[in-house]
Amino acid sequence: MAAEDGFCIHWSPAPGANVAGVRGNGGTAVLWISSYGPATRLPSDSHRHVGVALPQATVWSCYGPQRETDFEWMAGRIAEAERCSQNPAVVVGDLNWKKAYAGLLSEAWTMADSGPTVVAGSTQPARCLSLGCGSTAASADAVIGIPHHRVMSYITDVAASAERRPRSRLRRTAAFQWKVQPLPSEAAQIVAAIEDAAMHSATQPKLLEAWTQWHARAEAACSCAALLEVAVQTGKAERIKGSMPTSRRAPDSAKHRPPESMQRRRLKRFHRQAVQHAKWCGQDGPLTDKATRSWAAYRRDHGFSARSHIPNTWADAQEVATMEVNQLSLQEDQLCSREWRRQFRTWTADTIRAGGRMLRGPAHAATFTEIDMRAQWASKWCPGPDEVAEQAGLAWKVAALAAEVPQREQGSWKPPSRQQFLKNILRSSGAAGMDGWAADEAQALANFCPALVDELYDLLVRTLTDTEHGMSPELQALVAPWRVVGIPKRDPTESRPIAIASVFLRAWHRCLADSLPPLSPRQWSEAGVARAFIDWMGYRGAAGAEIDLAAAFDMIQHDVAQSALTHGGAPRAVVAWLRHTWSGPRYCHVRGALAGALWPTRGIPAGDPLSMRILGIVLEPWHKLVERQHPALRTWAYADDRSIVACAQLAGTSATQLVDEALEVTEQLFDQPIGVHENRKKRQRWIGGETCEHLGLVAAPAAAARGGRFAITTRDSWQGIRVVARRLPMVPGPIATREALATMCILPKIRWAAPMIAVPPIDVDKAVMRGIVRSASTQWCFARFWADNIVGCPTYATALQALKSATLLVDAIVPALRLALDKHAELLSLEVVRLTGSCVWVTPRTKCGYQVRELAQAASHKGDVPFDLRTKHAEVFDASSESGRHACRAIARVCCLMRQVSVSRPRFDTRGLESADVEVLTATEWKKWKSALSPREVGALRLWRSGAILSPTRFVKARDPTCPFCASEWASARHLWAECPHFEDRRQQLQTEVGFDAGWWSRQPPCTSKSGWVTFDAARTRGHRVAVSIAANKLGIDVVLAMDCKLGEPPAPEASEGRHAA
After folding, report:
1. 899, 977: one domain
2. Which H or E element spans position 168?
3. Residue 148 phi, psi dihedral angles, 5° rounding
4. Where is the composition biased (Basic and acidic residues) (predicted)?
5. Domain identity same for 216 and 83
């Protein structure tokens, strides 16, 4: 995997054998990207260290001896690094650093600060030593499936000096989490706390004072709720809500203390008092009354685990405290071990995020700091007095007049309703701004303190109307500060700024969207990618171009945006308010550190909810300027992604020449005058049958215009999905974790493009399945694995999404788009007979199974089918309705199972799948039973239903086929499930619970006796089939777990030659 991702690797030597002749474990390695240049692998005589000399620096990876301090070993490693390094050197690893090692380092060596990794109360720090360069700790990421451990990341700048500056962090505000609805008495106390926080004066306070008072009152409400235990304070306050952002120096790693319980701290205090008494008094003595009362309070709160009586003397107190600490440590270790095992068997949101980063592949960590980011964007946001910048607003007006963009009259501003503002707050999400209010805190205030939200609404309306002619910098810094975070680009030294405003300001701007001019019909940023792509494909073009703006949001002049809004008829008060918020202070925030504020004169914050609308309004004249050049030209835009297409039928000259003229008009008459620039690296030109990437999809629009049939793919095609699927086995944990990761990280790469995208190839399904099960063995049945989780199968999940979103193609005139939809429907044995704006009417194909027809007929009876369709098709139904989507999922399961049945050499255990009842999987009883299973039972059920049970009859050449329980000569899965005496008691118990005869087990087909898929012949009614299905799979789980204990792991897949064995 490392080689595929472009890494080279140098391993340390293998560890030697001990006195017993047993080879030990351990080792380390250095991985580097081959593009760094020629590398020299340095020799190593130990498995504890290894090095490589790169053109930029020499890197050593090492880890210290276990549970000991080896001064000589550390001295040897540092001396070796100094001796071998003709350039800057970096020593990184798990070093048990001690104060005694400090004398080993010369003055040129420095150590990067890093937080310790706490494991069961003890610290195991990772260190990075630098020689002739500077290193800083970048991040500490969680290890997937291994709680309490962290992977340290360091950034080394070989060109930087070794001198380090103190690290700083943004002071945090208090964080609150509301739990329950306050009672009337509690609500009265919260209201009283709000009134006491900032008393109203007789006169109306000034705006700056009013905003400060509101933040104080809102924080007082949260603090009072925390005292009443209605809310929980999850973060300590370092500054008040809404205050000016300030920084503090970050503590060194040596100052970090492992978390301790209050009980342990009390015991340590008792022990320290006893030691100090012996030190100063020199003799033992009775406890003081105060100490006796403290011990009595401890016994009342926690009790004694080692002895039952309170100590009488100081020596006795020291002994009792020591015994209690040891006993408490043992209990905490046991609790930590149980919690570790529990977290290892389950996946959390952190695990999924970490797994998602792993599936995306290696990425360069950001090497810029907050100072670097501020310097990068200061020239763009705060340009000097440039003549072009001063005339940009006038240039936009000239372009709008030349393009004949109609000018609308500016009306008076009508404030949005309170209900609309409250609704936007309840819908808020995302990170907190500089004021410290998080989205869940804002939602809690809206739910539990509506009076505060009403007060905020009045304050926002007053501020917008009173600041039409100007806003003071102090009020700007309080109302509209922006926290700008940097997302690293492909070049890790460059950043992409994302501005984050206050949660309340974002909700307010969503309310102001109705006051802005509408977008041009050529701008599709609010209509969606699918509609934009379908409209672009529908134009019969012969040549075209795709152009993209460089830093579009950050290069828009405020004068240009103001002129565009004024020309479109936006109220003056709204335009002035937006101008004030755009020029609010922006703070670059990188890894907790905050840079100084920038007061911009250019750039629309990319995190503003109105930024997409404003960019579309600014680009409106461009559409008409280009289309006025020739009637054969047509333009599209999705935010800053612009497209130009020339139609061959309408063009009197060459289509390529028309596109060239349109590009010249774009640059000379629009982009340069208003101060924006095209990113030439992303420009695409196409002509004839050439392909082109448009909004992430690759297509050939000219071929589509001629009726050509071709497959539309995503940017990375299917190879990108295969690469991600090959990384999936690296994710540790159970199958459920990798299955969830595949659903969240792989399926969205395909489903978003439905119904335009082509049907994924079947090898994509197989690659994802092998990554989930982490095996290439043929024991796993591909059809049954995905039929059990049909919404996770790339092929069928895309087909289901295509039928759900097929209403987008109602006006599509390109055959290639309708062809893709027909292929998706054909995969489900369906045929699309009619498309409307709200319905997708489908019917079973002629050569489909009887189950597909029965499911379609049942869905048809639940919907209101038009009369003309019902007279032509007996089983027609709406695939986009709720009942239709349920029927499509059941049909997809049937078609997936039929894939295995219809192959030339089907497996023996698939007999009976053609009549399997797939609707059992949607029954409430089945879902309740499956959700109550333990993680181990869930894995066993997945293995059993996929036909991958490990029985003695498999791998006949490697194992004895006799039954390990009853010595039967041929112990197949059917024998274990239906005949083996070892499981007879379990079979009788299940017979009694469900109510069927003893011969039921032997009458079932192989698909039931070998994988638990129940057929229609298993029981007469649907409810009884659900019950017998649960019973059959309960016994299957017992068989799988019993065989795992008897036979252990299966042999290598190469030994498997009995694919069709019983």
Report:
1. no
2. strand 168-170
3. 70, 0
4. 249-263
5. no
Q: Verify that 944 and 994 share a domain, yes or no.
A: yes
**Is the domain of 134 the same as that of 154?**
yes
- Residue 635 belongs to a domain: yes
The pairing of strands 127-131 and 89-94 is antiparallel
488, two tokens: 């690293």
Helix (H, G, I), strand (E, B) or coil at 51: strand
Residues 808 and 892 in one domain: yes
The Cα–Cα gap between 158 and 481 comes to: 35
CATH of residue 135: 3.60.10.10
Q: What is the DSSP string of 169-204?
A: EEPPBPEEEE-SPPPHHHHHHHHHHHHHHSPPPSSP
Whether 986 and 1036 share a structural domain: yes
What pLDDT sits at residue 1?
64
Enumerate the H helices of 303-402 as residue ranges: 314-345, 349-359, 370-381, 387-390, 392-402
Q: Does residue 465 lie in a domain region?
A: no
- Structural domain ending residue among the three candidates 875, 906, 937: 906
Q: What is the pLDDT of residue 650?
A: 60
Alpha carbon 589 to chain centroid, angstroms: 21
Q: Does 976 map to a domain?
A: yes
Question: For residue 99, what are its two tokens?
Answer: 């104060």
The amino acid present at 29, given as its one-letter code, is: A
Distance (Å, whole) CA 1029 – CA 922: 12
659 in Cβ contact with 627 (< 8 Å): no
Distance between CA 326 and CA 332 in Å, rounded? 10
Residue 870 domain-assigned (yes or no): yes
Contact 841, 832 (CB under 8 A): yes
Enumerate residues 6+ apart whose C-beta is below 8 A from 414. Answer: 515
Q: Which helix (H) or strand (E) holds 643?
A: strand 641-647
Q: How confident is the model at residue 214 (pLDDT cuts 50, 70, 90)?
A: very high
Q: What are the phi and psi torsion angles at 168 (to 5°)?
A: -130, 155
Question: What is the signed CA dihedral for 459, 461, 465, 467, rounded to 10 degrees?
Answer: 40
Interacting residues of 897 by C-beta distance below 8 A, sequence separation 6+ = 783, 784, 787, 913, 914, 916, 918, 1013
DSSP three-state, residue 372: helix
Q: Clarify whether residues 497 and 579 are in a common domain.
A: yes
Cα(578)–Cα(585) distance, integer angstroms? 14
Average pLDDT for 291-305: 84
Which one is predicted more confidently, 85 or 339? 339
Question: Token pair for residue 190?
Answer: 């919260």
Q: How many CB atoms lie within 10 A of CB 209?
A: 12
Quick one: tokens of 927?
Answer: 């879902």
> What's the rounded Cα separation, in Å, for the pair 625 and 621?
6
Residue from 729, 791, 732, 730 nearest 347 by CA: 732
Asked if residue 136 and residue 64 are part of one domain, the reply reads yes
Domain of residue 270, residue span = 262-360
Give buried/exposed letters for 712-733 (b at 16+ CB in 10 A, else e). bbbeeebeebbbbbbbbbebbb
Compute the distance between CA of residue 158 and CA of residue 723 in angstroms, rounded to an integer. 33
Structural tokens at position 306: 């080692």
In 826-914, beta strands by DSSP E: 830-835, 840-844, 877-878
Query: What confidence tens digit (pLDDT) does each residue in 707-717 have?
Result: 555 678 888 77
Domain boundary among 331, 360, 389: 360
State how far the Cα of 450 lies from the Cα of 442, in Å rounded to an integer.
Answer: 11
Specify whether the CB–CB gap between 87 and 58 falls below 8 A: yes
- The CA distances from residue 838 to 82, 808, 872, 875, in Å, are 73, 9, 21, 19
From CA 373, how far away is CA 497, in angstroms rounded?
9
- DSSP H helices in 881-999: 882-901, 924-931, 935-945, 973-974, 984-994
Q: Summarize pLDDT for 602-639 with one digit per residue, the tens.
A: 999 988 999 999 999 999 999 999 999 888 899 999 99
